[in-house]
Every structure is written in structure tokens, then in C-alpha cells.
Specification:
Residues 23-277 form the EAL domain. The protein has 282 residues and is an alpha/beta fold. Helices cover 54% and strands 18% of the residues.
Length: 282
């Protein structure tokens, strides 16, 4: 992809220089985003398909840019990764998620677990385990309250470091999930060796449930693979009732998506959470 970019530079130099200018501006702003308190986490509920209960939330990063408004991670995470800023950003995300868990606890809104996405550089750095421990200690939470999501490509790029970190996380009681499962290449031998808890079925497969029998077969296969490895399955991108019905029928454990809720700012999530608890008590 890097080479493609370089070639197109020659052919489309005038339009690309515009793009490069924007990129440089964004990069410069991103360097200050943490200290200027412009980063926020939104949280998307995860529902247990067996009990209907809220079992956790996934933390999803947003950047409140002073001129451009709220930017979604696809606009700046790749940039953060290419420039190394992801180290600082990732560390902030961990601290903020841990802090938020305790704040919700104090507001009598018990969120069992918060999932955090990890970038490959965080694993490469060798600092991750220490960072996670520090964030937990600073907030005063146990590992049971955290889940870490890594993609197959992250694991496969740094298999030894990933395995080592994951073992340390397992010892802390943190749940470990493979994100976007089915879109990368993971060796089944690794899957068996890693201390994993969950496979997260990628949105692209879930989206086509009811429309594309091949993708239904993929969902079914992932659910069965997970079961035979003793892992739970989470489906992301559940948008419709019939997606949820299919997944429940096939034995998927947990669902997440717009059908239940979009990612919410922390105070809205707390309100939702209280409303859910009330309605399930009635
Ligand atoms: P992801 O981890 O696969 O997160 C799921 C994405 O799907 C989120 O996009 C979420 O808002 C979106 N989504 C949730 N439910 C639905 C649905 O029903 N339909 C559709 N169409 N989309 C749904 P978002 O928040 O824009 O995040 C995009 C990606 O950015 C994430 O994909 C993740 O890879 C990355 N990301 C987000 N936060 C962080 C972070 O703190 N650190 C790192 N390293 N990456 C992050
Ligand atoms: Ca994720
Ligand atoms: Ca995902
Ligand atoms: Ca994804």
C-alpha cells in the first residue's frame, strides 16, 4: 500500500499535495490531542444472547478536533500508528477506560467489563504489560473488569511478543479477544496455544446474514470452531433483529451492534444501563 501511495504521488501530485497538507496538519494536531484533552471514549454495549443481559462495553476512541468536529478512529488511528503517536494515545485509552469503570461504579452503574482495542505497536513496544498494570493500579480495578482486543494480523506480526503479553494478561484475569476474526490469517495452531477467551466475528460476515448464505456459513463455522476450542463468540455489527435471531440460534454467546445501541458517551451509557437494569427487573 505504501508503494501505491508513492506511485500515485507522481501521477496525481497536485491533488495529493492537498492530501499531504491535510495529513501534516492532522499529524501535528494529533501530537497535542492528548494534552489538550481532545480524545474521548465512547462505549458500545455487549449483550449476552442467552440471558439478554449487558455483559460489557467496548471502548471506541473519538477525537474532538477543534475545527473538524468529532473524528472517528478510521480517520486518525492509521496516522497515529504510522507516526508512533499511537503509543501515547493507546496508553491514554487504557488509563481512561480504567478510570471510567470506577466512575461508573461510584454512580451505581455497574459495567461488568470494558473492552479496549490494542494496536500492534503497543505489543511491539514491550511496555504494554507494565502500562496495563499501571492503569489498573492507578484506578484500583481488578483484571476481571478488562478485556483486550487484538486482531489476527497483530498477533501474527509479533507472535512471540503477543503470546508473552497475553500470558501475562491471562495471569491478571483479563479477558482476551481476537478482533475482526475471519478477515486475517491466523494459524489454527496459534489459536490453540494462545490464552484466548473469545473470537469476535467480523462485521462484514454479520452484516450479510439473511442475504448471503456463504457468510452465514462463515458465522456458523466460527461459532463452532470457537466452541470446539472452548472459546466464546462475540458478533459485531448486529444491526437487525434477524441477525440477532440467527446468531442466537447458532449458539453465538454475545452480540454488539446498532440493533442494541451505537457507541455512547459515558454519561449516556450510564443512563441506558440504568434503564436496562430497571426493565429487566420488572
Ligand atoms: P473495531 O474494533 O472493529 O470496532 C467496531 C466498529 O464498528 C466501531 O467503529 C463501531 O462504532 C462500529 N459499529 C458498531 N456497531 C455497528 C453496527 O451495527 N454497524 C456498523 N456498520 N458499524 C458498527 P469505530 O468506532 O469507528 O472504530 C473503528 C475502528 O477503529 C475499530 O474497529 C478499531 O479497529 C479502531 N479503534 C477504535 N478505538 C480504538 C482504540 O482505542 N485503539 C485502537 N488501537 N484502535 C481503535
Ligand atoms: Ca474492536
Ligand atoms: Ca472488530
Ligand atoms: Ca473492524
Amino acid at each position: 500500500a505504501k508503494n501505491e501511495g508513492r506511485n500515485s504521488l507522481y501521477f496525481f501530485s497536485s491533488s495529493l499535495s492537498e492530501g499531504i497538507r491535510e495529513r501534516l496538519l492532522l499529524e501535528n494536531d494529533l501530537r497535542h490531542a492528548v494534552e489538550r484533552n481532545q480524545l474521548v471514549l465512547h462505549y458500545q454495549p455487549q449483550i449476552d444472547l442467552h440471558s439478554g443481559r449487558l455483559v460489557g462495553v467496548e471502548a471506541l476512541l473519538r477525537w474532538e478536533h477543534h475545527q473538524l468536529g468529532i473524528l472517528s478512529p478510521d480517520r486518525f488511528i492509521p496516522l497515529a500508528e504510522q507516526t508512533g503517536i499511537i503509543g501515547e494515545v493507546g496508553s491514554w485509552v487504557l488509563q481512561e477506560a480504567c478510570r471510567q469503570i470506577i466512575q461508573w461504579d461510584r454512580e451505581d452503574c455497574y459495567i461488568p467489563r470494558v473492552g479496549v482495542n490494542l494496536a500492534v505497536q503497543q505489543i511491539e513496544s514491550g511496555l504494554l504489560v507494565r502500562q496495563v498494570k499501571a492503569a489498573m493500579q492507578q484506578a484500583g480495578i481488578q483484571g476481571e473488569r478488562l478485556e483486550l482486543e487484538v486482531t489476527e494480523s497483530t498477533i501474527m506480526r509479533e507472535p512471540d511478543k503477543a503470546t508473552e503479553a497475553m500470558k501475562a494478561f491471562r495471569n491478571l484475569g483479563i479477558k482476551l479477544t481476537i478482533d475482526d476474526f475471519g478477515t486475517g490469517y491466523s494459524s489454527l495452531a496459534y489459536l490453540k496455544r494462545l490464552p484466548l477467551d473469545r473470537l469476535k466475528i467480523d462485521r462484514s460476515f454479520v452484516m450479510d446474514i439473511g442475504a448471503h448464505s456463504g457468510n452465514e456459513a462463515i458465522c456458523r463455522t466460527i461459532i463452532n470452531l470457537a466452541r470446539s476450542l472452548g472459546l466464546e463468540t462475540v458478533a459485531e455489527g448486529v444491526e437487525e433483529q434477524h441477525h440477532a435471531d440467527f446468531l442466537q440460534r447458532e449458539g453465538c454467546d454475545i452480540a454488539q451492534g446498532y440493533f442494541y445501541s451505537k457507541p455512547l458517551p459515558p454519561d449516556e451509557l450510564a443512563e441506558q444501563c440504568k434503564a436496562w437494569v430497571k426493565s429487566s427487573e420488572c
